[in-house]
């Protein structure tokens, strides 16, 4: 299960969205750092993204379901990143704030899940080619 490269990508996506984002600030302002735990919607989206990645790792026998859950995770993280940018430009940019490194973790998760989906699709085409030869 974990020996497949796409499982490693999904594990890295789960770690980055589940652990790393709690240590990196989303935004920085004069009042201090704005962390993920200060907003329940962002926290919920992070937890959901982590759970989808972990769910997808354990669905290695059903590659089609892995791809679908990966696409859902990609959409979720694009929406999450869009909401972060909207909040930054509406709230923190007026006060002279800066975007923190934690705000770019959803983009890293999108890249990792996209790489995982490519690996899953390669496996699927390999299995279909082997089935055709029988």
Automatic annotation (TrEMBL):
Keyword Acetylation: no
Transmembrane spans: 7-28, 40-60, 72-89, 95-116
InterPro entries attached to this UniProt entry: DUF4293
Pfam family membership, one: DUF4293
Keyword annotations of the record: Membrane, Transmembrane, Transmembrane helix
Record's protein name: Transcription termination factor Rho
Lineage of source species: Bacteria, Pseudomonadati, Bacteroidota, Flavobacteriia, Flavobacteriales
């Amino acid at each position: 299960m974990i020996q497949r490269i796409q499982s490693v990508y999904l594990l890295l996506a789960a770690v980055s969205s589940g652990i790393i984002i709690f240590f990196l600030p989303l935004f920085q302002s004069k009042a201090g750092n704005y962390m993920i735990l200060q907003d329940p919607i962002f926290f919920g989206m992070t937890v959901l993204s982590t759970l989808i990645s972990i769910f997808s790792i354990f669905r290695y026998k059903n590659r089609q379901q892995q791809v679908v859950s990966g696409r859902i995770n990609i959409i979720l993280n694009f929406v999450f990143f869009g909401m972060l940018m909207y909040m930054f430009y509406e709230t923190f940019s007026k006060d002279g704030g800066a975007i923190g490194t934690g705000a770019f973790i959803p983009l890293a998760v999108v890249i990792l899940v996209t790489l995982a989906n490519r690996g899953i699709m390669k496996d699927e085409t390999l299995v279909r080619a082997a089935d055709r030869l029988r």
